[in-house]
User: Which sequence fits this backbone?
């Protein structure tokens, strides 16, 4: 009887080895897919912190096929973050969606674990869709700047999309106004890449302030929300700046 028991045990042992070998081969064959599931490709992080004027609005990531692959809401201090998986996109266009229209970036590459140390600025959302500018017409974001000169006049200029100050030759508004409330205009300001225009200013007789705007050929005059310079002061030499405006190319 012993040889029979031994033979049966040997068959069971051989079967166990065969099953173990088969299971090992199955695990090896499944290893790449298991690894892929357990270790997905790290996402690309897109972020920014200067969308103060767009708190509560949406930033949406659209991939190269026009499919939404990520979105977020701008937080109370203008901060936002969108993560995009490289498995969902090779490139994305980020869109800032607000009541004033939709602004969009140029196409951005999506990389494994991508992260831009400087983040994205409002000026990177350089394209906008509005009734006025048409579908996805190129725009830039700029500001009017002004300060009180030593002789009491108001000196003004523009702060370009890269933060550089541009001062046109004709850039002084007379102290106390010109004696009327008609619009005066600066010499032409060239931001490059076809974006040009003129600062306009007028005296507000009711309270003595100076109102500023910007004029681009082919559009209505553009007036930022913060656009008034005080009737007297300020008593420092620092530039005051308007709220941000967007301008298109002349048409």
Assistant:
């Amino acid at each position: 009887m012993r040889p029979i028991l031994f033979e049966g045990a040997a068959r069971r042992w051989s079967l166990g080895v065969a099953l173990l070998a088969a299971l090992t081969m199955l695990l090896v064959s499944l290893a790449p897919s298991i690894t892929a599931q357990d270790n997905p490709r790290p996402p690309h992080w897109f972020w920014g912190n200067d969308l103060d004027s767009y708190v509560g609005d949406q930033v949406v990531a659209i991939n190269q096929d026009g499919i939404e692959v990520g979105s977020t809401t701008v937080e109370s201090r203008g901060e936002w973050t969108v993560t995009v998986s490289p498995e969902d996109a090779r490139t994305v266009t980020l869109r800032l969606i607000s009541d004033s229209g939709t602004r969009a970036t140029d196409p951005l590459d999506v990389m494994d674990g991508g992260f831009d140390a400087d983040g994205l600025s409002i000026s990177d959302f350089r394209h906008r869709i509005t009734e006025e500018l048409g579908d996805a017409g190129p725009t830039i974001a700029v500001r009017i700047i002004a300060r009180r000169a030593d002789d009491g006049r108001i000196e003004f200029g523009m702060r370009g999309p890269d933060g550089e100050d541009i001062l046109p030759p004709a850039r002084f508004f007379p102290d106390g106004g010109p004696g009327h409330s008609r619009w005066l205009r600066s010499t032409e300001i060239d931001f490059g890449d076809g974006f040009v225009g003129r600062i306009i200013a007028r005296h507000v007789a009711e309270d003595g302030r100076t109102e500023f705007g910007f004029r681009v050929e082919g559009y209505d005059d553009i007036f930022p929300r913060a656009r008034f310079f005080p009737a007297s002061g300020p008593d420092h030499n620092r530039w005051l700046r308007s709220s941000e405006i967007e301008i298109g190319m002349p048409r």
